[in-house]
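Hi C.,

You asked whether I'd gotten around to modeling the 125-residue construct. I have! Everything is below, sequence then structure, no commentary in between.
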Amino acid sequence: MKKQIITEGEDKEFLMKAFKCSRMQVWKALHFQSQSDMARRIRTLAIKRGGALVGDFIPECETTFEEVEETMTQRWGNRVKLVYNRKNDEVKVYVDESLKRIEKPKGIPEFMNLQQEVEQMAQAL
């Protein structure tokens, strides 16, 4: 199943009115067929209203590996980054270079959930 956000019918109607757009534009945003600024805002609001993200998740970010430091850094634009430290399994989340969160995910599914949260946060900024 491809990644999409599942919402109720009345939520789709709300999104159409809130963004003054067509049903097709909402559908494309919720099915990640559109990557415009409005589509990102539609997805963010849909999640805030209780929509469920389902399907494959591949973070839309730039990923680099720092072998000497034993870290992986993922960046969503210039403002948001996630740094995973392989030595202690610690994950730090930064917004505008300010530390906002420290986590120690227990396994890959928990790490992927954190990635999704960070990506949604980046889209909301």
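If it helps when you're writing up: The chain has a mean pLDDT of 90.

Thanks,
B.
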